[in-house]
Amino acid sequence: MTKELIIGGVFVALFAWTIAMQVVRKSVTPKRLVMIPLGFGIAALANDRGWVQHLGSGGTLLFFGAGVAVAVGMGLVRAATIKVWSTEAGPVSKGGWLTVVTWFATVGVRVGIAVVAAEFGASEGAGEIMLFIALTIATQNVVIARRAGLFGNKAAVEGRVERTVENAAPAMMS
Length: 174
Hints:
mainly alpha, three-stranded antiparallel beta sheet
């Protein structure tokens, strides 16, 4: 019981730190974009080795698939709330209040899926939750990497500011 509480506390602290880091200005580097999702993915596999056994029925696979779809969808939505621009030192990103709101929405939808899944006897373990977080952050980071020019997008590298939810309306007027 104590081990689970410690692991849970570390997990919650890391998750809170991950969200907080998205609303501060920081450089966009492959290492920054890969480390957090990779960490959550490794933690999922290391701490909940039985998560694959949770997927033994059609119902659990259905809810797992719904979780994957929500993870990708919310990662795309959240990426739209993060500004990416070029500086002399390289690409930079910074989220805002909408980024935090979309994180609350992401968590709310995910908890809703877990509650409904449990009602249908398809309860989930920590592994599925950590994989969800890894996938939603990875999806968001792929979009940020593309907008930052890390995939060879020349327009982003030259300093063109990509449209986000926060600046899309003024951009459409011009």
